[in-house]
């Protein structure tokens, strides 16, 4: 990417709807939208603002007076791109572009642009392309609805609008089918890698959290890896896994996943479901929160909602890590320590300084040890493959030979038991 060329001058608008007031504070919401825009290197955010709305207008989203007022503001600041922090219908987008004579992107479009810029692996690129096409397909169909009225009679003869819709829709569908086939091949390869990891007797610990909560910084601190970690939304997209030796505990595989965000486009949730399946395979989930952020509670609710939508059951062992305590004043930090001391599933840490990490690692080791249960298995002489697998997993506590085969006492996790049953 050429960094010496002039960057596009952008303005960020956050529509504050009455229906949103109970859910999100508009100030941190606007700050997040500006940070999203800043995550694209080709954009220069020259201004931002909150626009209060009683209700969205179907034609322009904003009322006519506000549209004119903003047109003057954007013209005076030589703005080339306006980012609307919320959903826009194709009609609203087209009308605002005509009124303001600028390019418009809504929240979904912006996040898709960021993901397209960040994806590095073949799988990530394919997922983003599929998500972008799915998004374009819905907007394409809606954008042409005004032409569908040209259909005559009983609808057996399509007008020019319908012809254009069908041609464009078919082109997108064909491209989606091609991408899906390519992605299926990549996913099969990753499944083979996952099965190979399943043969290694290491529990999986997945880091999840809102984007920019500090997951990658924590991952780097614990593993010594050099995963990209910046004060930027969606700095990393592709999942990374490393082996970590816990103090006085087992070796584990630590997984760093893509960050979540409020109102994550449904197209992206669907596209990245395969990647996020790493979370479903985890023995323990560590939810990393930026406790210094003004909207930390809202962010936590968004993460929990996405985990639930992925099918992560409530019974899965889970820790909550309150990160970035180094950014808090001493009084707030002391209050956090008191609260975490009363709850064994809460930990106050700083991934930057390392403060609070030892208790977290010790708790992870204990939790993984507690999930193991003892069981006695009887194997026939012909089941040498299953017996060898148990020894590979290092779960055999005792073994004795019988007339028909072997009796083994094993100590294993539910995940290992499920894998054994599938052999």
From TrEMBL:
Q: Which UniProt keywords apply?
A: Cytoplasm, GTP-binding, Magnesium, Metal-binding, Nucleotide-binding
Residues bound to Mg(2+) are 216, 236
| InterPro entries membership | G_HFLX_dom, GTP-bd, GTP-bd_M, GTPase_HflX, GTPase_HflX_N, GTPase_HflX_N_sf, HflX_C, P-loop_NTPase
Molecular-function annotations in GO:
GTP binding; GTPase activity; metal ion binding; ribosome binding
Q: Tell me where in or outside the cell this protein is found.
A: Cytoplasm
Q: Which Pfam families match?
A: GTP-bdg_M, GTP-bdg_N, HflX_C, MMR_HSR1
Fetch the PROSITE patterns from UniProt.
G_HFLX (PS51705)
Q: Which GO terms describe its cellular component?
A: cytoplasm
Task: Name the cofactor(s) required for activity, per the record.
Answer: Mg(2+)
Q: Quick one: where is this thing mainly located?
A: cytoplasm
SUPFAM superfamilies, sorted: P-loop containing nucleoside triphosphate hydrolases (SSF52540)
Question: Binding residues for GTP, per the UniProt record?
Answer: 209-216, 234-238, 256-259, 323-326
Q: Does the keyword Nucleotide-binding apply?
A: yes
Domain Hflx-type G intervals? 203-372
Q: Which NCBIfam families did the record assign?
A: GTP_HflX
Question: What is the protein's quaternary organization?
Answer: Monomer. Associates with the 50S ribosomal subunit.
Family label? Belongs to the TRAFAC class OBG-HflX-like GTPase superfamily. HflX GTPase family.
Question: What does it do?
Answer: GTPase that associates with the 50S ribosomal subunit and may have a role during protein synthesis or ribosome biogenesis.
What is this protein called in UniProt?
GTPase HflX
Q: Which organism is it from?
A: Ruegeria pomeroyi
**What taxonomic classification does the UniProt entry list for its organism?**
Bacteria, Pseudomonadati, Pseudomonadota, Alphaproteobacteria, Rhodobacterales
